[in-house]
């Protein structure tokens, strides 16, 4: 009976493994092979070795796009977690409002990124809602062509991402808060811990698992951003919002014969995301073990 159990387990897992192989494994290895050819998307492809990767590392557009992508990720991750944490702490201290507010803070994450991009394109327009509001309250000096200025365009796009998913991050932090033993908080209150000291020495260490989950999801999501800059700015102005994913898109559907090069870019970016995600998760898990 014991010898049959692995076979039974394998028989249940086999359909999922086959589906995963067809949808994920095969395209992954097929793409890796195509990146070593001169394929233009047709049936004919000659092996060229690492030529596409040599071109990639010498392409200034790639490094500019990588810089934009990393800056975007840093802005999104920092502010999304900051607002999410503030939201979670506020809701945790107000249990009566928690059930009602929780439903509303999740609504932005249900809006499709393309729809959110169109909506905020009108808000950030020169005659849009944001500039009109600033003019109405006497802050005309702060009015900008938000999506047409290289110094503000990337941050405007990042603001849409933060708006969409700060509530989602807040709910994850709220789950972390809910897992804290109330006796620990009561003991801290008796010892005189309150305000920032209570947050720093009691709450922050105990919600470390929620931080790990949020950072992993936020970093991967921010690095993979595509729809928002595509719809809102199309990578402009002056390529100030051109991310790696947009560069892949341009090479894939733009210049003739760019299919193999775009595939090499995609493989390079996949490896970069994997390295960042694994390194960050490993460090955060190590931090969790030190905390507990």
From TrEMBL:
It is found in: Cell membrane. Keywords: Cell membrane, Membrane, Transmembrane, Transmembrane helix, Transport. The chain crosses the membrane at residues 7-29, 70-88, 100-125, 153-175, 206-226, 259-284. Residues 66-280 form the ABC transmembrane type-1 domain. It comes from the Bacteria. InterPro entries: ABC_transporter_permease (IPR051393), MetI-like (IPR000515), MetI-like_sf (IPR035906). Its main location: membrane. PROSITE patterns: ABC_TM1. Signal peptide: none annotated. Pfam families: BPD_transp_1. Belongs to the binding-protein-dependent transport system permease family. This is Sugar ABC transporter permease.
